[in-house]
Design goal:
Helix content is 0%, strand content 37%. It is mostly beta strands and 340 residues long.
């Protein structure tokens, strides 16, 4: 597992990188990124290299720079810059081997705004080309590759001048035609959510921040406990039983068993404390069951399933309870492994 960049407790972008050996259970430092960055994307290419794209630099400015990590030489090399500097975008490996970058936050109208633009990276040619824009500008969304190769873009947020507004709108990108089409809208607008492709090709979406939109005549600052499923055959979303508790900034991984592990996260309005608890979704019965929790509650962390079925969790914000004025969030270097 490669971890590169991110932010420290003050929000400052980092340039350090490290690699995890699942056999020895140890981390080793690798060469730093050429540019410190946060809010970027990392995409494993077909040949095993890793493309790191955009984000914000140490000065907070939006980046158009990209870098490629070679796991054999353990080195970074510069790649062609993005056509548009951006952060909070999605980056998706297509069936063609190209990488689709869509949306995010970028420069608009003399300031910053939400982007609808998209572009494609060709790993063989090493260059970027414009792709058709999405119908809706969005940042902090999720992208999932469906059977057949289409990409489903889910929710996200639109900058409105105040608190970003969560979106219910979804779109589909067809790599063969190079076009976008409208997908069914979420039953609940979401940002800070997760989208996970299930074994049958449907997509599970979980949680997210409080929408700021009254539901059933009531307004709440609690994060969303709701979950829903996208059916590619009917292009519609349907509500599922709620999770045991609401969460945002969590991670959701489909395990080799077919079940989905939902772990960690946080709640508003401070978004400062990380959750320890974890739950499993069973697509067969559409039910939720509790499973072993984290030793340290955390949010906005890295998580992946290892080749032997174990789950590795690393980093994230662990501060439990609101920070004092001027206090930095507690960012952990801690690592945990779950054996399902």
């Amino acid at each position: 597992m490669l971890v590169a960049g991110g932010a420290d407790g003050t929000g400052r972008a980092l340039g350090s990188a490290a690699r995890f050996d699942p056999v020895a259970k140890t981390w080793s430092a690798v060469r730093d990124l050429a540019t410190a960055r946060r809010g970027h994307s990392s995409t494993v290419l077909d040949d095993g290299r890793v493309l790191v794209t955009g984000g914000r630099g140490a000065d907070g400015k939006l980046l158009d720079s990209t870098e490629v990590f070679d796991p054999v030489a353990a080195t970074w090399s510069p790649a062609a810059p993005l056509r548009t500097p951006r952060a909070g975008h999605s980056a998706t490996l297509l069936s063609t081997g190209a990488v689709l970058v869509a949306g995010g936050t970028g420069a608009r109208g003399g300031g910053e705004g939400t982007l609808d633009s998209a572009e494609l990276f060709d790993p063989r040619a090493g260059n970027w080309s414009p792709a058709k824009p999405m119908a809706d500008a969005r940042s902090g969304h999720r992208a999932a590759v469906l059977p057949g190769g289409r990409v489903l873009v889910v929710g996200g947020a639109l900058a409105t001048g105040g608190r970003p507004a969560p979106l219910a709108f979804c779109e589909l990108y067809d790599p063969a035609a190079g076009t976008w089409s409208t997908a069914g809208s979420l039953t609940t607008p979401r940002r800070g959510h997760q989208a996970t492709v299930l074994a049958d090709g449907s997509v599970l979406v979980t949680g997210g921040e409080a929408t700021g939109i009254p539901v059933g005549g009531r307004f709440t600052l609690a994060p969303l406990a709701s979950a829903e499923r996208y059916d590619p055959g009917t292009n519609t979303w349907s509500r599922l039983p709620d999770m045991p508790g609401g969460r945002s900034g969590h991670r959701a991984l489909r395990l080799r068993s077919g079940k989905v592990l939902v772990v960690g996260g946080t709640a508003g309005p401070a978004f400062a404390g990380g959750f320890r608890n974890a739950t499993l979704y069973d697509p067969a019965g559409h039910g939720w069951t509790s499973t072993g929790g984290l030793a340290d509650g955390r949010t906005d962390f890295a998580a992946t399933e290892l080749a032997d079925g174990r789950v590795l969790v690393a980093g994230g914000v662990t501060l439990s309870g609101p920070a004092a004025p001027g206090e930095a969030a507690v960012v952990t270097a801690g690592t945990e492994i779950l054996t399902p």
